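@channel anyone free to eyeball this complex?
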Amino acid sequence: MSNHLSGPVEDVTGQSGYPAGHPPRMGFFTDTSVCIGCKACEVACKEWNLVPESGMDLLGSSYDNTGALGADTWRHVAFVEQVRPRESAPVDLGMPAVGRPGGQEAADADRDVTWLMASDVCKHCTHAACLDVCPTGSLFRTEFGTVVVQEDICNGCGYCVPACPYGVIDIRAGDGRAWKCTLCYDRLRGGLEPACAKACPTDSIQFGPWDELRGRAQQRVDHLRASGVPRARLYGADPDDGVGGDGAFFLLLDEPEVYGLPPDPVVTTRDLPAMWRAAGVAAATAAAVMVAAFLGGRR
Amino acid sequence: MAECHPVGFQWVMEAKQRGAVVIHVDPRFTRTSALADLHVPLRAGTDIAFLGGLINYVLQHGLDFRDYLLAYTNAPAIVSDEFGDTEDLAGLFSGFDPATASYHPRTWSYDGARAAAPIGHPEMGADDHDERAAEERLGATGEPLTDKPRMDPTLTDPRCVYQIVKRHFARYTPEMVEQVCGVPADTFRRVAEAVTSNSGPERTTAWVYSVGWTQHTVGVQYIRAASILQLLLGNIGRPGGGILALRGHASIQGSTDIPTLFNILPGYIPMRRAHRRQSLDEFVAADAGRTGFWGNMKAYAVSLLKAWWGEAAQPDNDFCFDYLPRIDGDHGTYRTVLDQIAGTVKGYFVVGENPAIGSANGTLQRLGLANLEWLVVRDLQMIETATFWRDAPEIETGQLRTEAIGTEVFVLPAAAHTEKPGTFTNTQRLLQWRHQAVEPTGDQRSDLWFYYHLGRRIRDKLAGSTDPRDRPVLDLTWDYPTEGGHDEPSAEAVLREINGVGPDGAALSSYTQLADDGSTACGCWIYCGCFADEVNQPARRRPRHEQSWVAPEWGWAWPDNRRILYNRASADPQGRPWSARKAYLRWDPDLRRWTGPDRPDIEATKPPDFQPEPGAQAQHALSGTDAFIMQTDGRGWLYVPTGLMDGPLPTHYEPPDSPVANPLYAQQANPTRQVYPHPDNRTHEVGSQVFPYVFTTYRLTEHHTAGGMSRFLPYLAELQPAFFCEVSPELAAERGLEHLGWATIVTARAAVEARVLVTPRMRPLRAGGRTVHQVGVPYHWGGNGLSVGDSGNDLLAATLDPNVHIQESKAATCDIIAGRRPRGADLRRLVGNYRVRAGLTGPAGMERPDGTDQARGT
Amino acid sequence: MVPEAKFGSYYGRPVLKPPTWKTPDVPVYMFLGGMAGAAASMGVLAELTGRPALARVGRFAAAGGAAGGTVFLIHDLGRPARFLNMLRTFKPTSPLSVGSWILAGFGTLTGAAAATEVTGWLTGAGRLARYGAAVLGPAMMTYTAVLFADTAVPAWHEAHRQLPFTFAGSALGSGAGVGLIATPPSQAGPARVMAVAGTAMELVAERRMETRLGLAGEPYQRGRAGRLMRAGRALTAAGALAAAVSGRSRAVSVAAGLGLLAGSLVTRWGVFEAGRQSATDPRYTVVPQRERHAAR
Ligand SMILES: Nc1nc2c(c(=O)[nH]1)N[C@H]1C(S)=C(S)[C@@H](COP(=O)(O)OP(=O)(O)OC[C@H]3O[C@@H](n4cnc5c(=O)[nH]c(N)nc54)[C@H](O)[C@@H]3O)O[C@H]1N2
Ligand SMILES: Nc1nc2c(c(=O)[nH]1)N[C@H]1C(S)=C(S)[C@@H](COP(=O)(O)OP(=O)(O)OC[C@H]3O[C@@H](n4cnc5c(=O)[nH]c(N)nc54)[C@H](O)[C@@H]3O)O[C@H]1N2
Ligand code: SF4
Ligand code: SF4
Ligand code: SF4
Ligand code: SF4
Ligand code: SF4
Ligand SMILES: [Mo]
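replying in thread with the prediction:
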């Protein structure tokens, strides 16, 4: 049981009951170091999936006026502005091969300005809490290993909402059902890449077989680190993490929480056996209390 | 570039991945800066000083690419001793006429070489007393000289171009750059080192610009400055080099090639001018250079006339040359608006444009619209230009009254690009065919449909007319096949007409086939070949992995599907690549032809050692090392002996609104800039205390220009849902501006309100001995649509570059105060009070570009 | 000014999505369910130990609570068909699925029991139904704790060991409360014991939630949730105290019962609110995770 609820999984699709020969697990590697914050991904997603507009609010969080992922935002581009006094000697621009090769940081005369831009999405977790807790089976694992809501089955119970450790899925106002990224299930079935990846001009969003992407991500982070971007790190790419690794993982240039991501998410159902055990003991205790009250008590 | 050309920016990212250094020069820290290695903030409107500094750095340190310079540029050419530089004349060149605020370029010419009238500028230097005509001299790319200049290969003659350029820029030192631009000298040196060490035989540097460089009263000279630098460093005609103009609207390049401009004909052939009786041959003789490829202008012109008037165009009627419309001066968009206000322009077609929001000085635009008899707006949305009569800001203030506006407005729904086939010509001259994706709905029709059927109906009405003035319309070839229920003209047929046909009626394959005897017809000579072999070449989509890295089978580039212009310069004079790393073209002595991944930009079999016969014409007059084949002398021009309205060399002038006196010259602003005196079009005093801040206008990725294609769409509007301005924390503190609060930005033209974004990405600069705060004003907003707000363009005055009539919209001064603007008549009162405080209360006049009014620092 | 991110959060915005469940629907549903569970067991035990009045009260409270809880759940869902949708499958990993089946079974059994009692028909089956419901009673009292705990909400998830006891204790109290209100004191003795023992269980569990959960325990003490929890505790404790001393006084018994019921409801509400608070403030998500991460 515990292997089903947490920890690394060899074949998440197979574990969900798909017969051998199912397609490889597909996912995203979002390399934020090349994201230019154009939001083409956000718009393409809405266009393709007919997601409603999510409000005309000027949020003042840099250029981000979407705020967060939600029922009406399946891709969200975060913008974080950071200014630091110059720490290091200026980069030697003269030697062309040793420019600062990656990252969203530029030198100014006396300071380094970072403008982090990152496109967030549902993680299509190996152990997806939303899917685990969904009482109706509306959320299911597809043959591509992705996690999708079936809008005709969802009853809007909302359980998936607080269950998701990333705050991704949400109930759509006025509709009452849960919505999130489908990893463009319809496109995948048609042999197309997801709309957001297709629209991304810089290949910040890379779509492909999960195994392959992880190799690529590792190479990219190694390259960045080696060329002077020590803050580069992978997020969600580790199958040993609390959710068994994300189907959609990221290369970040700062701590995850800076982007609004949880630093160490754990799938809640990992503890489900412990929870039922505690509930069982509590129930038994309550039962014992009642029996005792009736048998031992005064009239 | 990341902001406005995100799809193109992927290649910058790719270059960066491969080790390229990316430097971003911009007053603001933008999404582009974030991905650059170095961001260089500078004071808006000072790039000539910056580029001039780089030119000076190259020349002072002897870092030019000498072999390239000697072989391919006019650095050795000797200039007339009558030429007087800005260094000697307090910021003016010789030949300035204060009465007309313009130059006579005679003294700028090469020594001994006759300064022929350049293509497109026949009036230049001529005595022309028609002022309006004098203002209009520009059109085609300019190749003026009929003879080759005298050369000093040692580059030591004090009158050679090299020495003149060196003297001209000598005062553009790093310290001067710091003073003018606010770029610390150290930062400047880092840029200079990066640029120069990345240039030469082994390496190239590219400059990429867009409207941050062009929308100035000296915009053309910005690009000229970059050209000088690139020629000095040998970065033109070579892979990874060049100056890349990132253009704007989809196919805005196409609309210059086959122009929607008033002063040129397709293929940069100049428009005919009124008041001058000219035969076709006189026209060509006046405009065409004798040598270089422009020497074939008659073939291009005759083929164009044949395409338009077909059988009617015959040698005995000069191929209907007299049917061409003629211009009598400036008919640019801003002149036209002033003429609307003056009542001399009565009708207006606005097609795919939203001038009430998108053009500088919105008030002027709307006053013009309100004074028309009729207005036709063809657009996708109900844009402000169509609804000004009921909701212009001037209605609110009482300056206009709906009841008093007599303009009859016709709004016609247009089909969008997805609803019709056709080509886009994009920024690198690449034609790409666009297939129709969906049928337009309702009454929406393509613009092609509109013009074709409009023409057809006019011709029906004129049918049978014997009035000679109707002949040009009746004789037009107007016979495109139509298809579908709405009789949509075939866009492919139009493309084929543009491509041109030979005597046998078959599609031509290259402009070199064009003849001047009427045997060929071609709608635009530079596009000749786009339908070669009767194949729609722009529709080619062969993946890049299935062809050479130059990808010649993706779309079709003009001219002749050539991907790098002037690519002869990628090889040394002997025809060998400058280096293995940067190899592109080479002369193959065995095959006796040029080989490489691209079409050579020289006759394929012209050997490097070719020397022209004396008296040879057109391209035959160019040698095997004359890489700049469109130029009469075959060379890249560091110094422009004629053809520009504002001088042969770039010179730093301050923008019309400037916070500081020009640190370099007594002459404050471009003396030849175009001004349009009007009470609502005043510029500010230099260093005005009333308008102490600089502001610049720009775009956001999330919106498109005047907003017609973004403010109305929920998915885009929600991404930037309100008009805002960007200020530094320092300015916010100085003016009490709060993040997400409101600010009112005031100029002598208007006052607008915007939400405030306080961001450290904006930072004050030290320039001209003072702190300069810059305010960022995106210009996308207006009153209609989902994301609404005041319009940034209301703040600007319309003052133009004299060469290409573009407005200064990147650098101006303003005041900014916390809080919302007053409403109604109080708004006009606020602006009026500012004008009084700033002393701008005289009659409409003021701000003449006479260049002599230096006390007021024009 | 564009605010700089603090303690590593994104403009202070939540990392998690707070539960979208409505109030009072969900707290009331949980309260009623818990009460009904306790009442069902209590009723059967009373029946077996010869306390007919208490048994009757237990039966009807169980049926009423189950029905009422279902009504509130349906209201939260929006329409009845959506509750039925819960039963289209059985999913052991979903406490809501398990819970729905428990609720459905319990509701059916208690409903049947009540119906046979009212009509007098099929009394044998009615008894079986009563006994069945009594067996399900303790599950009804605790499954909602798992429902809350099996989320990413820090105040709930981290409390997954304590919450069942809190809820069980609270349910004991509320079941006892109904007994105290509606039965003559002579038959309500066991209810008094249940009240005192349940309250003790709840208070101990709550104390542990406050002390053992680290930062995740904080929301139970702060803001609206803190106020509700304190009020719930006060009401419950007062109710239990009154129950303990009520002796033969009907009035005191009723007061005690009302206090226990109110306390139970308010406590559920407080737990709900604490969860919402902990999900809304990114600190509760980020800081403990960061510490956990650093410890590895
Ligand atoms: N998303 C999006 N893309 C677009 C458009 C759009 O509206 N939205 N418009 C299209 C069109 S029509 C065009 S013409 C292009 C324009 O493309 P760009 O030229 O890139 O557009 P802008 O944002 O107007 O101006 C560019 C930059 O110039 C800077 N700038 C201002 N003054 C100066 C100066 O004096 N010197 C320097 N070096 N920089 C200065 C501004 O801060 C701004 O960042 O974009 C095209 N692409
Ligand atoms: N302050 C300031 N002002 C500027 C600039 C700046 O940088 N700063 N930039 C300038 C520049 S570079 C430009 S290009 C202009 C742009 O300014 P405009 O051209 O005035 O503005 P757009 O919003 O691009 O207008 C294009 C209109 O065409 C419509 N349209 C789209 N497709 C079609 C079609 O197929 N047919 C027809 N008939 N209509 C269609 C759209 O709905 C839209 O309303 O703004 C200029 N103004
Ligand atoms: S990120 Fe959240 S919504 Fe997406 S699969 Fe994981 S748990 Fe489900
Ligand atoms: S809201 Fe829909 S998708 Fe989410 S848990 Fe409930 S039934 Fe499943
Ligand atoms: S994969 Fe599809 S559904 Fe998911 S974010 Fe991308 S475009 Fe949207
Ligand atoms: S499309 Fe790509 S580059 Fe643009 S915001 Fe999305 S991830 Fe970043
Ligand atoms: S909007 Fe169109 S033209 Fe502009 S960058 Fe995107 S794809 Fe290119
Ligand atoms: Mo443009």
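from a first look: Residues 567-627 of chain B form one domain.
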